[in-house]
Fold this sequence. Notes:
Order of helices and strands: HH
Structural class: mainly alpha
Shape: elongated
Distance between the termini: 12 Å
Number of domains: 1
Number of strands: 0
Radius of gyration: 15 Å
Number of helices: 2
Amino acid sequence: MEDEKWDDLIGKAVIWICIIGIVSSLAEVIPVVPRILIYGVFLFMGIRILKGQKKSSYRYR
């Protein structure tokens, strides 16, 4: 159980580092206003995904 939880957290962390890297590299090209919008969208999507994963993990147990 604990190992699975840690693997899941590490996997999420790696995905988030990749996303942040891509977004920040894009953000250097894009001016400031779209940058804020992009970060907002990514945060919103991230929160939605995390909430969805919590719901689905309860469903399978």
